[in-house]
# Entry
Amino acid sequence: VQLQASGGGLVQAGGSLKLSCTTPRRTSSNNAMSWFRRAPGKEREFVAAVSWNGSTTLYADSVKGRFTISRDYGSNVVYLQMNGLKPEDTAVYFCAINRRPVPQSQPSEYRYWGQGTQVTVSS
# Structure
């Protein structure tokens, strides 16, 4: 299963980026979706998750109020709108498909992973 993430880039602190992840419908339509990230030298970190129908979301405390996750059910795309970016948000961002319909933060609950897109925030 291939998940295609895009939208990363270089941005100044305080700027915005919107990430997109395209998924195969047969593997995502009834499943929660999430974004994780891995900064250099750090462990993979949960960022945000959205339920199968988009009605419920979950965020890491570090991004709450700045990032917004959403999904377009018809086109099987999940988005991450990132505002107020900080240098500590610099990481490779991955999208993932959960085994279940509800949003969760544990990586072990995710069945499929994308290859990631680099986000770099300069100070």
Observations:
- The CA atoms of residues 2 and 114 lie 6 Å apart.
